[in-house]
Amino acid sequence: MTDTPEALPSTESTASEPVPHVTRRDLLAGAAAIAAASALRELGAPDIAAQEVLSVPSVPSDPTKIPGAPAGDTGARSAFETPVREHVSSSLSKTPLHELEGTITPADLHYERHHGGIPTIDPNRYELLVHGLVERPTVFSLQDLERLPAVTRTCFLECSGNMRRNGPEETTAQSLCGLTSQSEWTGVPLAVVLDEAGVQAGASWFLAEGMDAAVLSRSIPLEKAYDDALLVYAQNGEAIRPANGYPVRLFLPGWEGNTSVKWLRRLELADRPFMSREETSKYTEGIKGGKARQFSFVMDARSVITHPNYPAHVEQGWNEVGGLAWSGRGRIARADLSFDEGETWVSAELQEPVLSKAHTRFRYLWRWDGAETTVMSRAVDETGYVQPSLREFIDARGPHSGPYHRNPITGVRIRTDGQVVYRTEPWE
Amino acid sequence: MRSVVRDRPVILLAALGVAFATGCDQSVPNDGATLGSAPAVVAARPASHPLPARFGVGRAATEGDISVLDIDIMPDGNGLPRGRGTAVDGATIYASSCVACHGADLQGTLLGGRLVPAPDALGFPDGDVPISMKAIGNYWPYATTVFDYVRRAMPLDRPGSLSDDDVYAITAYLLWKNGIVDETVVMSAEALPAIQMPAWDRFIVDDRLGSDRVR
After folding, report:
1. Residue closest to A298 by CA, chosen among B132, B131, B11, B211
2. Does the bond joining A5 to the residue before it have cis omega, within 30 degrees of 0?
3. Could you tell me if B77 and B34 lie in one domain?
4. Is residue B18 part of a domain?
């Protein structure tokens, strides 16, 4: 295939020329197809068979000279584009941040973190129970929830354990912090649902419980329900994906991901927290002085450079440095870049609209002179909170504060040959 | 914690204020400042279509609806079922249902986490002690959480399959192995909430907000 103009570009790359957007899987698939095609040729089969083995469309030398493909029921990515999530374990996969543009994460690339696998739930049998300190314990069907006033809001959702420590130079933005994604969510304000049941005086917390095999449960202050909590059933214009909580999940803007309980089956109102396993032994952080921090809901301001990123190469001359900044406390006020290891900072341009508790794209045009350069990014949000350096972070929390709520400044390093790598920094 | 006692229509309007702020005008701060006042919403709504105090959606939950789902256990023992179990009983159940993932020495394996502190544990695993040292005996603040979690989510391949007696027994076994109760204790709805865990006073509520620097 490599000797014909119809070949996919993925089969033309060689190991000595790393090409962004071409995965090892592509290379392997291409190699397998070449082997299969040559075997078929030896058997006297026509060359067309090779294209069928590849199961990607043939590429005409001039697409204006043959009719294109017909319309279909659902779309698919170009066969030339193969972004995939990075599976760290069977319960966790990361969004390819360094392969995406804009701020919306395609739903099939949204990060995953589940504690008992992805349940299969029939939307026609779905029920949400609201009980405890309410006037009228109530069961809502999906249709009931869809009848209530809906809102749509674009927000990030981030796992509280979203920072790979001590990654090697080959660490991509995906591998570093791909447990954050952004969607346009649609659902009903939780306050509307609670008012249907009638919240009793004295209620101050509620338990949110999922119907997954972990029956995951978290206690949430009732204040959040009357601030901006949603019960969402749609994501980027369609029903929520199973991995993201189909058919209904809680959504708590700006808060650590596991509190936005997926596959929601029950809300129980009470006058105190329930002290579930997730909020005692699990999603708590050791800090200095023999203590651990609990109910640390808000995700602190954070940023990551996505372009350029490993394994890309950059050319001398003008380049755009870009990435994402976000904060669970509100809007991003600034995204700063440093080209001198944090000595001085310049502000990047923020792509409008800058939404509260949302991924914000930043960009900065920069001229690379060919010298080895590090580029670091730093987010500042509208509350004035400044993303800390790793030194500041460790000094504040201790070196072993655990996997949650790590948000130190990170960066990339550009070698003299243009190769972009992760700016490594020992966590100590 | 702010009181939630207020007129229902105000709550509803506040909720719709959020709806308008987030759905139509993303430039309006959504930090709670919009709550409690939504004059634009009120003014824009024609008198012929007043907002209801309630929409009347959903059906009344029955006792059965609630009892089948209401499985949570609180630190004061609220929610604990009848039943009993001992560490000796628990050892048998552990050997058949838990050991494959958590190991014969309860130190955890690649499949399941550590259940007892490591032999070289360095005290409470705060920010200066490796998080891998976390276990029931040195980190979990409430014994009731052990019962709640085992009953709802364990064993991993058969979640929710253990009887209440079995869960009491496993809880007794785990607490005994962590050096918290005597081997002969009979775990029950009365005994479990009376246990004070070593880490009960180690947890502080989030104190990061209100500062513009990392805490």
Report:
1. B211
2. no
3. no
4. yes
Task: Tell me how long chain B is.
Answer: 215
Is residue B51 located within the same domain as residue B75?
no
Interatomic CA distance for residues B34 and B28, integer angstroms: 8
Question: Is the N-terminal amide bond of A70 cis, ω within 30° of 0?
Answer: no
Cβ–Cβ < 8 Å for A87, A93: yes
Angle, CA B96 vertex, CA B94 and CA B97 arms, to 5° = 65
Beta carbons of B26 and A355 less than 8 Å apart: yes
Q: Are residues B189 and B93 in the same domain?
A: yes
Does B208 contact A290 at a Cβ distance shorter than 8 Å? Answer: no
Tens digit of pLDDT for each residue in A244-282?
A: 999 999 999 999 999 999 999 999 999 999 999 999 999
Kind and range of the H or E run holding A337: strand A332-338
Give Cα separations from A83 to A77, A157, A391, B80, B114 (angstroms).
Answer: 9, 19, 34, 48, 36
Partners of A385 on chain B (C-beta within 8 Å) are 211-213
Tens-level pLDDT at each residue, chain B (215 residues): 333 333 333 334 344 444 333 333 333 333 333 333 333 344 556 677 777 889 999 999 999 999 999 999 999 999 999 999 999 999 999 999 999 999 999 999 999 999 999 988 878 988 888 777 899 999 999 999 999 999 999 999 999 999 999 999 999 999 999 999 999 999 999 999 999 999 999 999 999 998 999 99
Helix (H, G, I), strand (E, B) or coil at B84: coil
Residues B179, B98 share a domain: yes
Local structure of A256: helix, strand or coil: strand
Question: Which of B58, B77, B100 corresponds to the end of one domain?
Answer: B58
Tell me the C-alpha distance between A39 and A53, whole Å: 11
pTM of the complete model: 0.85
Residues B46 and B104 both lie in one domain? no
Residue B199 lies in a domain: no
Domain shared by B123 and B176, yes or no: yes
User: Which range of residues forms the domain containing residue B170?
Assistant: 66-194
> Residues A170-217: pLDDT tens digits?
999 999 999 999 999 999 999 999 999 999 999 999 999 999 999 999
Domain with CATH 2.60.40.650 in chain A: 302-422
Chains A & B: contacts with CB separation below 8 Å: 258
Considering the domain architecture, whether residues B45 and B79 belong to the same structural domain is answered as no
Residues B76 and B161 in one domain: yes
Place of tokens 């052990």: B146
Does B203 fall in a domain?
no
The total number of structural domains that make up chain B: 2
Q: At what angle do helices B87-97 and B164-177 cross, to 10 degrees?
A: 100
A180 phi/psi in degrees, rounded to 5: -140, 140
Q: Suggest the residue from B7, B22, B205 to mutate for an interface test with chain A (most A CBs closer than 10 A).
A: B22
Is CATH 2.60.40.650 what the domain over A302-422 is classified as, yes or no? yes
In a domain, B33, yes or no: yes
Q: Provide the chain A residues 388-427 that lie in CB contact (below 8 A) with chain B.
A: 388, 392-393, 396-403, 405, 407
Which of 3.20.20.70, 3.30.450.40, 3.90.420.10, 3.40.1400.10 is the CATH number of A90-293? 3.90.420.10
Q: Rounded to whole angstroms, how far apart are CA atoms A375 and A414?
A: 8
Among B114, B207, B174, which Cα is nearest to A295's?
B207
Task: Report CB contact under 8 Å: B65, A274.
Answer: no
